[in-house]
Amino acid sequence: GRALRAVQGIQGGHGDSYYSISTMDSRESIANIFAIWASNEQLYIKAKELFPNMTGKFENIMKEVIDGKFD
Questions:
Q1: How far apart are CA 18 and CA 26, in angstroms?
Q2: Of 28-32, 41-45, 59-63, the least confident
Q3: Rounded to the nearest 10 degrees, what angle do helices 52-66 and 41-50 cross at?
């Protein structure tokens, strides 16, 4: 979450207490990747360079969505 916000250049956002919830960091990371993917191709390319495992998992999820596995 925090690292991706840095890539996006986002200031502010959730405080540290939000990330103390064990599942929030990974959920927030996926939300941030989706925001980048949907709105800024160049930033998504940069995110892929910095976070290849995470963006790879995200792309697998999106492929399943596109293929209709989440209907």
A1: 12
A2: 28-32
A3: 130
